[in-house]
Design brief:
The protein is mostly helical. It is about 80% helix and about 0% strand. It has 2 helices and no strands. Helix 1 runs antiparallel to helix 2.
């Protein structure tokens, strides 16, 4: 996964306030 793409997904997850999405993104 591209770093920029990962950051975008991380920001999206944080804005959505979904802990599961955030935790899932930590395991790239």
């Amino acid at each position: 996964m591209d770093l920029r793409e990962g950051l975008q997904l991380w920001l999206f997850a944080t804005t959505q306030g979904s802990d599961m999405q955030m935790r899932r993104l930590w395991f790239w």
